[in-house]
Design a protein that fits this description.
The structure holds three protein chains of three kinds. By secondary structure, chain A is mainly α. Helices cover 68% and strands 0% of the residues of chain A. In chain A, helix 9 packs parallel to helix 10. The N and C termini of chain A lie close together (12 Å). The N terminus of chain A is likely disordered. Chain B has a single domain, classed as Rossmann fold, CATH 3.40.50. Chain B is built from eleven helices and twelve strands. Chain C folds into two domains: 72 residues, no CATH class; 243 residues, MetI-like (MetI-like fold, Orthogonal Bundle). Chain C is globular, with a radius of gyration of 24 Å. The chains are: A mainly alpha, B alpha/beta, C mainly alpha. Chains A and C meet through helix 4, helix 5, helix 9, helix 10 and helix 11 of A and helix 1, helix 6, helix 7, helix 11 and helix 12 of C.
Chain lengths: 300, 331, 340
């Protein structure tokens, strides 16, 4: 009905112009919601800060085991905008540094989980109703039977606490979410004509899986990845909150909250600011994720 | 408001402008559409996909999508402008006045309620006599199903939509639309999604039921053949404008607008001549329409004036109007 | 329908079996020397050796697994290293506390989630929608400990009307153990003051725990409601003059509930996980806090047993969810019947 606006260009348009047009349309759809743009701005700001924290933070040396009792437990002030912790370290500087760990967590986990979970899902979906598929999907079911947090805590509790092990624990528990997602999509499209015709033309499995099927699964995967960046960071923070993440003296947001809670309500800044920082990062990825979803949807 | 309304008309649309919000800006979908349906008359709106047929009738039924904006015009139903109605009046309009049959019978029935429950609910809010009585509602629902020649209404009442075939579902939609007396029935491409073999039956059912109840009908279709079979009068629509209206037989005998003529040529004829060449070009730009006639780029009779001015509808004979400079005096 | 239920139960049993292997591997195989870890470095070698013997640690892995599984079936979950009591006894004490907490938060989730979601869809694009959406955004993105900190600061310190930790006030004695849920037990004993005190203690953690679920449920309800609003049947119902509120709460909510309920089931499962943090912060003596303590202290017996209990709870919950959905949605119900 109202789908005609682009009639009249389409076929005749140059490929390059078309690509530009697609980018423009994608950006239009993304920017339709100001919240999505706000999310993108938050993400960019966090990345910027994480990269340049050395020059941005007022007391870069406070990320280590510095002790400064003269200014211990000071409330927010000009010299320490977010206050100091119990041994006098600047909380702002520590939060800015902790962004690094948080981003490492998110990127690292997704970099491992998406390819592994994704390929398993592709394979299980394509060879649905075969032994491989049953095995992969039942295995995924087992991992999905418990909420991710419980399983992650379980796995990381048997390892030495560190950022790397926290990431590892999250990876162990997270791949099935991508497997299940891709499995569902692949099963629904594996009998589409374009897949069938590629099979009839004698295309290899790699071609069918990665050139025919995969591109048609990507939209929801990208959306999920954006959202999951936030969740992975949140899980990381939760792990360090209970003491299974990055170890002192390296700052991590979860651990800062955990330490700060003991000084509620008088020294509220010790827990409230790091907690807000976590929330802001997750919020950023969530807002942007909704934007990505709008951007990749077919609805005008 | 009532002063300028014609009492013979079931509905009258005057100079309706509607646009849709899209990523490129507002698409002007209707550009001053006017039409009227007399009481008990069956009309059909014919046009290509995207020419604004559905938008026109959705505006009449007041169920336009949220990104639509009405930029001007009047829709007079029972002599009152719908666009100025309050919530309460709108509800009255819907309950007793207008009902719709949609293109997709699968999606136009609620998937999680039985046919009977949905039918009874529609009757309940129809304002018909006895609609307040539970038993009467049931009887009316059964009647409505039986009248559309659905077999075993008892059983169908207990069924869910997904348990029935497409043709049956469309009949149920017809039954629903006509369960109680209505002034106007709108059928939006009611046969497009159905099997060819049952399209004809469904059309006959619609026509028969509308005639029985004495309602007026607006049938939307992109097929002139379908329109001729059902309608007394046909409107031809192109790119958001009405371009010709005439009694059904007349439009087949002597169509005037070049676009209508081209559409006629597209109908494959049994007498030979093979499949027609179609109409060259595409539906024009909706975003910044040029000032002239919208069909001008594709028209083989186009002249200078067609590029400068939009021709309005003018009556060339009784009941036969056309929007084309070819038929203006002094051209 | 009978066959499909049997099939589903079989799948769940299979998953449970798989889960038991997973937990066994995580808690008993990966740590290496479980007995030494459990008893700590200062315990004499002989004691550790005795434990190894008792746990069949000298046997091959799969034999160990079957011993472990057999013990669980016999109700022997081992002895907790921290509490020095049989793990099963600990579970009996702590599980009802967590159940009480999660159930209460599930009630909040179901009620507020659906109501807020429908309102949000109804006022889509207007200010009530904006407020609800902003709230649900924050509910989703903010970690449980953020809300815990905030709510505690607010209601325990700034406006001190609610206690910040524990299950009952210091002046009260525990109710007689019937269900293990204090509010219920007090009520059964006719002690309304006690029930009220227990409610006051549980209120903050339960509310904090339900924030995430409410937000998720509201968002998914809003999404599927607005999606359904665009379906032709919604237009049809409107065109037939059915009142707007009836369309909303009856004809649009019913088909939308499917996704809401599946999400809500996940949220309630998530509440058990969230309880790991919330119980910790509010010092609420539940099973999640117990499990977290066990994890932090490498109490492998307790961890593997408690996690297994959680596994069973979630699988039962999944099953119940499936049944609720099939009762509510004729498409699912009748499709299942057709299969049998």
């Amino acid at each position: 009905m109202n789908g005609t606006p682009h009639a009249g260009e389409g076929a005749a348009a140059l490929p390059r112009k078309k690509r530009f047009e697609n980018v423009r349309r994608a950006w239009y759809k993304f920017s339709l919601s100001k919240l999505s743009v706000a999310g993108l701005v938050i993400i960019c700001a966090v990345i910027f800060v994480a990269v340049f924290q050395k020059w941005l933070s007022p007391y870069p040396e406070h990320v280590g085991a510095v002790v400064n009792f003269a200014e211990a437990s000071a409330p927010p002030s000009f010299s320490h905008p977010l206050g100091t912790d119990t041994i006098g370290r600047d909380i702002l500087s520590r939060i800015l540094f902790a962004f690094r760990g948080a981003l490492t967590m998110g990127v690292g986990v997704l970099a491992v989980v998406v390819p592994i979970g994704g390929v398993l899902g592709l394979v299980a979906g394509y060879w649905n109703n075969r032994g491989v598929s049953t095995f992969i999907m039942r295995l995924a079911d087992v991992f999905l039977a418990l909420p991710a947090l419980i399983l992650v805590l379980c796995v990381s509790s048997i390892m030495e606490p560190s950022l790397r092990n926290a990431m590892l624990a999250v990876c162990v528990c997270w791949w099935p979410y991508y497997t299940r997602m891709l499995f569902g999509i692949v099963v629904s499209i594996r009998n589409e004509t374009y897949v069938r015709s590629a099979e009839i033309l004698g295309a290899g499995y790699a071609h069918i899986l990665f050139r025919e099927i995969l591109p048609n699964c990507l939209a929801p995967v990208f959306t999920k990845m954006t959202l999951d960046m936030g969740w992975a960071i949140l899980l990381g923070a939760t792990l360090s909150f209970v003491g299974m993440g990055e170890q002192a003296p390296t700052p991590s947001l979860g651990a800062m909250v955990a330490d700060g809670i003991n000084y509620l309500p008088d020294q509220w800044w010790m827990s409230v600011f790091p907690a807000s920082a976590i929330m802001m990062i997750v919020l950023g990825f969530n807002l942007a994720g909704d934007g990505v979803k709008d951007m990749l949807s077919n609805v005008e | 408001m009532k002063a300028n309304a014609d009492p013979r008309y079931a509905v009258e649309v005057k100079d309706l402008f509607v646009s849709f919000r899209t990523f490129k800006g507002y698409a002007k979908v209707l550009n001053g559409v006017s039409l009227h349906v007399r009481r008990g008359e069956k009309i059909s709106i014919v046009g290509e996909t995207g020419c604004g047929k559905t938008t026109t009738v959705n505006a009449i039924a007041q169920i336009l999508a949220s990104q639509a904006r009405i930029d001007g015009g009047e829709i007079l139903f029972r002599g009152v402008d719908e666009l100025k109605m309050g919530k309460k009046e709108l509800r009255d309009l819907r309950s007793g006045g207008i009902s719709m049959i949609f293109q997709d019978p699968i999606a136009s029935l609620n998937p999680v309620f039985t046919i009977g429950a949905q039918l009874r609910e529609v009757i309940r809010y129809s304002g018909a006599d006895g609609a307040n009585n539970k038993e009467a509602r049931r009887r009316m629902a059964m009647n409505a199903l039986a009248e559309t020649s659905l077999p075993d209404p008892e059983r169908i009442m207990e069924n869910y939509p997904f348990q029935l075939s497409g043709g049956m579902r469309q009949r149920i939609c017809i039954a629903m639309a006509l369960a109680t007396p209505r002034d106007l029935i709108i059928a939006d491409e009611p046969t497009t999604n159905l099997d060819v073999t049952i399209q004809d039956q469904v059309l006959k059912t619609i026509r028969g039921r509308v005639e029985d109840k004495g309602s007026a009908l607006i049938l939307i279709t992109h097929s002139l053949g379908v329109a001729r079979e059902v309608a007394d009068r046909i409107y031809v629509m192109y790119a958001g404008n009405m371009i010709e209206s005439a009694p059904a037989d007349r439009i087949f005998k002597k169509s005037l607008h070049p676009y209508t003529q081209a559409l006629m040529d597209c109908i494959p004829k049994l007498s030979g001549g093979g499949i027609a060449g179609g109409i060259a070009g595409r539906v024009p730009n909706y975003f910044s329409p040029p000032p002239g006639c919208r069909f001008e780029p594709r028209c083989r009779h186009a002249s200078a004036i067609c590029r400068e001015k939009m021709p309005g509808m003018s009556e060339v004979e009784e009941d036969h109007s056309v929007a084309c400079f070819l038929y203006r005096d002094g051209r | 329908m009978g066959i499909s239920i049997a099939k589903r139960i079989l799948t769940y049993v299979l998953v449970l079996f798989g889960l038991s292997i997973l937990i066994f591997v995580i808690a008993r195989v990966m740590p290496g020397d479980v007995a030494r870890m459990a008893l700590g470095p200062r315990t004499p070698e002989a004691t550790v050796e005795a434990l190894r013997e008792e746990m069949h640690l000298r046997d091959p892995i799969y034999t160990q697994y079957f011993y472990w599984l057999g013990d669980i079936f016999k109700g022997d979950f081992g002895v907790s290293i921290i509490s020095k009591r049989p793990v099963l006894d600990d579970i009996r004490i702590y599980l009802p506390a967590t159940m009480e907490l999660v159930l209460l938060s599930a009630v909040f989730t179901a009620f507020f989630g659906i109501v807020l979601g429908v309102l949000s869809a109804k006022y889509s694009g207007k200010w009530p929608d904006a407020i609800i959406r902003i709230f649900s955004y924050f509910g989703v993105v903010a970690p449980a400990f953020f809300w815990a900190v905030l709510v505690m600061l607010l209601f325990a310190y700034l406006i001190p009307i609610l206690p910040s930790s524990g299950r009952i006030g210091p002046g009260l004695t525990e109710p007689a153990h019937v269900t293990g849920m204090y509010i219920l037990d007090y009520l059964l004993a006719g002690n309304t003051a006690g029930a009220f005190d227990a409610l006051k203690h549980i209120l903050m953690p339960a509310v904090v725990l339900s924030f995430g679920g409410i937000s998720q449920a509201a968002r998914i309800t809003r999404t599927s409601m607005t999606e359904n609003m665009m379906k032709p049947y919604a237009s049809a119902e409107r065109a037939y003059g059915i009142p707007e509120n009836k369309i909303l709460f009856k004809y649009l909510l019913r088909p939308s509930l499917n996704s809401t309920i599946s999400v809500m089931a996940l949220d309630i499962a998530g509440a058990f996980a969230g309880a790991f943090l919330v119980e910790q912060i509010f010092n609420y003596p539940g099973l999640s806090r117990y499990c977290l303590q066990a994890m932090l202290n490498k109490d492998v017996f307790a961890v593997s047993a408690v996690v297994m209990v959680f596994g069973v709870i979630f699988i039962v919950m999944n099953f119940v969810t499936d049944i609720i959905i099939s009762v509510l949605d004729p498409r699912v119900r009748l499709a299942a019947r057709g299969e049998a």
